[in-house]
Amino acid sequence: MSTENGNLLSVRDLCVVFKTEDGTVKAVDGISFEVKRGETLGIVGESGSGKTVANLSLLRLIPEPPGKIESGFIEFGGRDLLKLSQTEIRGLRGKRIAMIFQDPMTSLNPFMRVSKQLMEVTQLHLGHTKQQARAHAIKMLEQVGIPDAHERVDSYPHEFSGGMRQRVMIAMALSCQPELLIADEPTTALDVTIQAQILELIKHLKSETGASVILITHDLGVVAGMTDRVVVMYAGKLFEEAPTRELFERTANPYTKGLLRSVPDPTSEHETLYQIPGQPPDLAHLPPGCPFAPRCERAEEICRREFPPFVELTMSHRSLCHFANEIYAETKSAA
Amino acid sequence: MEENRQQKDQIPDSADLHISAEYAVAERDIAELVTGEVVVGSSLWRDAWRRLLKNKLAVFGMIVVLVLVVASLIGPTIIQKTTGYTYDSIPKDSALLKSFPPFRGPDGRFSLAHPMGTDAAGRDILARVLSGGQISLMVALIATLVSLVIGVSYGAIAGYLGGPLDDLMMRIVDVLYSLPYVIIVIVLLALLPAKTPTAQLAQLFFALGAVSWLTMARIVRGQILSLKNQEFVLAARATGVSTPKIIFRHLIPNALGPVIVYATLTIPTVMLSEAFLSFLGLGVRPPRVSWGSLAAEGAANLAVFPWQLIFPGVTMALMLFSLNFVGDGLRDALDPQARRN
Amino acid sequence: MLRFIIRRVIVIIPMLLIVVSLTWTLVRLAPGSFYTGEKKLAPAVEKNLREKYGLDKPWYVQYGKVLKNIARFDFGNSLKYEGQSVNQILLRALPVSATLGITAYLIALLVGITMGALAALKPNSWLDYASMTLAMLGISIPNFVLGPLLVLLFSLTLFWFPPALWNGFPSKSLVLPALTLSAIYIAYIARLTRSGMLEVMRSDYIRTARAKGLSETQVVTRHALRGGLLPVVSFSGPALAFLITGTVVVERIFALPGLGNYFINACFNRDEPLIIGIVAFIAISVLVFNLLVDISYAFIDPRIRY
Lengths: 335, 341, 306
Hints:
The structure holds 3 protein chains of 3 kinds. Chain A is an alpha/beta fold.
């Protein structure tokens, strides 16, 4: 079904649990979403919302134990990734689905020359010889904008700056022309000026290769500039899903609303910055009812008692809230 | 990591270096202690205690240590009261002046008189093992205390005062680290034997304590460095509290967690060193006995009277085994982040 | 790098001086002398001997001579083993100790790294608990207890290996001493490897390696081992010092004609030239070996530049 309707990836009812000292915790609790070919999907949420766990699960990179993918389907190219053998899933990793991680300082092996780390991927997946792999590595480094790639290719990671290391990571991820690139907070650890460069680079390379991208971030500014659609996660659950434009203009979820309000607005006269009250919930001790209810301005008695329904507002807009329709209506009139 | 200034200076990103190049790591996985979180507050101690009780091996270790300590403390007296044997009482009957196997009387039949048998002079091995335990425990405890006092003061002063003095003091520690000090201790004990057995023991305490404070000094310095810029210290300084008072009242109590863990791990190490020296005939000397000197006697008579080695040797190994488990358990309990899962 | 090595070599000299001077002072301070030991000598003979060995000169002359000897690496003749120079004894005893120590350390590396790596790859499995309990036993059983027990079992009961004999390498006579000596290093190395590997296996770059599609074996051998074994490398420095301590005991248990045995005997006999010679030799080897370990660090970890 995934290929016919243009979906590259389709996740259904994914549940991932972690065993901790306080008991079993559902880090990802029944989320579903799709990624279409050539599209960029943003996944937004505070730290601990399960966005990273969900995406590591796509490549089955959750450390087991303590983690475990409990149930769900992950369809990619017509196959359920959760049913593949270890060898089959390894054949996908780095070749058809590639990842970039948050901290480029620690994501590269400090004991290995960059050339070797880059060559490793194409030697493994594309059957490159040493010479081919090396030439390819240099080409990739040039593509991601590393000056003097010929010379720098044999450097060690610590000889690069943070931004340059993230470029190396991107070169590594794109070496085999993957169909899906998962970028997990690719700019969080970088300086602000470098952030923009890296995002621009991802955008540019995406348009060149036609790959789909999942961009995980907590920064709504990044989402606005980069993505086609957005998924909002909270406490391991999918809270809202909508096309990017619609989400910014007509959110139907109090949590998203809170997130949007906490983005600084340079045109606003207000001095103080809005902050969602309270703390992200402790996943081991979730309240009954809506997990966001204790922090929600709109929460009523029903929110504390009953788990909210998933309300479909349009074909492409869903929201997990007892009052999704009301909020949607309000934002419409406001818009 | 803190200690290895020389290497740290050369590394562009110290944040990158998550593997410590520290020698101390070699002795015990000390890096975990040095980089661990600062333990402050009494509820943390209570939590640690709770975690320690959950660790079955550590609880097993504590029970064994307790049993062995109590047995060593009161055992010899009980044996003397009930049977009249002491660690150096030689039987008057010359027929008994030989080594009997465990639970065997002079007639070769089962007997409860000597559960661990007797040594070549007919002395009760159980009484000797328990008395030896007293000496071994005492040496280990006092020598650890000596190393604790030197190491904590040295490390705290270096860490708190900082600057060139800290540099110099830690350089001295580096230098001492690479000296083959055991060799010097052997020379000292072999060439300058004390006049009396008690003086001999005192010599042992200081010799062992003086060579085992280096790692402690490094740990304490690392802790102090991370503590000294915290607000409660700045506040104390701002209100005019004197430097010694800040070090000994504010800093050291807060660095206590790793210090306790390392001290617990030092006890078996020192005990082993004492036994090693006694085995070579340089430590505890007759008529006093320790586990090490008993093992030395036993090893000499191994072929014919194996029980003379087995009982003191196994008792000592059991003690070291348990102490190590307690130490490891304490470290895990006080520093949950070092817990490996 | 060269500057670092030169600086370190220069530091070795005063450290060597400290060790030797300390030893010499202890020997001087000690009451009595070699001649008050086992053989009672006629005063006239003793006086002659004292003159021959320069023991009648003032202390600074003797001290100067000791320093000169070290500089030339010639410590004169042993008092106990008449007619033999200290260097001859060193040359005879060193191969024994070195063979024993190197064999034991190689066994320890092989067994310890395997045990530790297996434990780290399957944390909290029975394999992990078994190897770590075994390692704890290795740390807790003193070698002077383990050695005799091995002799009791394998030599006196099973007659597999000789109890006390030296036939060099390779020979059956090496097995028990090397095993006895290696036990504690197996234990240390297994523990260090386990914690080092666990730390590395949790690190981000291992996740990157997995995300590339490498097999678990490739992840471990290409990416994890190098970082995971760094603690073992840094242990090798102090290990030599411990190894020397260990050989003293093992050579004594198995009556092997190695440095350790000569050293203890020299101490008991007050054989001053031999004591000084052995101490100087050990100090030099420990200091040089520590330097070598530091240098090897720079080759293993590219981030370290001296």
